[in-house]
Amino acid sequence: MKFPFLASFIIFIIWLNFQIAKRNHIDGDPIQKFWAREHRANNTTKQPLDDLEYITIPLERLPMHILPEDEQIAEYQDTVKYLSGVSIVNFTGISNTDLKLQYGAPNLDRLSRFDQNYTVLARTLNSWAACLYEKGYVKEAREVLEFAVSTRTDISASYKLLCTIYKEENTPEKIRNLHSVAETITSATKQTIVRILQESEI
Hints:
Elements: H1 2-27, H2 30-42, H3 71-83, H4 96-103, H5 108-134, H6 138-150, H7 156-168, H8 174-182, H9 190-200
């Protein structure tokens, strides 16, 4: 009684291995494909950076004059002023491999700095706006957040606070305009942001 079961089990294992090998042959080994792509990326020569979407900080449109005597606010303002003089690009959701394939491996360190500058900018704008809002400067907080959204920030708290402000200012229709930005976000927070916008419209 045991032999037929054992034989069937062995046949099943052979069939399973065949199917796995067949699938790998069709789709390619994901690990091998990854390393082949990484190898190609590492050998991509330096490319021009002319088509990058550099972010310009409009200091004249931001509330740089509000509460400069407040230590925390002043720190945010100083950070934004510093960032206005460096190169900033939002590469959220784009892997290093993709960057190397498009712009060349020799440019990766430079591109990483641009992206790090953006990360600092997005976080600073979110914290600055929240601080302004808590201190009663609602219009100024909105100005900061609207700029943050224009850079396609993926910080969900920025969208949530901006929706709150739009409701307080009796302009809930502006929430609809945020959907087009949310749809372009490629990071893991996209669905959270979309949900925040949908719930804010109810």
